[in-house]
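EI: anyone free to look at a 124-residue chain?
SC: sure, send it
EI:
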Amino acid sequence: QVRLVESGGGSVQAGGSLNLSCAASGVERSFLMAWFRQAPGKEREGVGVLYLASGIADYADSVKGRFAVSRDSGKNTLYLQMNSLKPEDTAMYYCAAKPWYRGTWYSASDYSAWGQGTQVTVAS
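SC: here you go
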């Protein structure tokens, strides 16, 4: 059974940085792990993904060049380094995991394993 626990959210000024963590258990090497976010009144959207077997990462266009997904395999922890934060990045951020071959990485409906979320608020 996959268990995911996010941490590291908070409030920052625009232009600031935050590093989110997702402590994982039960995740297999054939999985991918992704970060999603959901702002009030909006759909949950994929932010970035890491394919665990290959180490390949991919990102939503809105965060390319500002966000980076990485993993410490020894700690079974996924990270989301967020730089140059903008007010529009304000959302609840979630960690998710699934087998890489199931659907697309950016489709929230393809995931069954989610963390509880961590709030990120960016003030202008």
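EI: The mean pLDDT is 96.
SC: 👍
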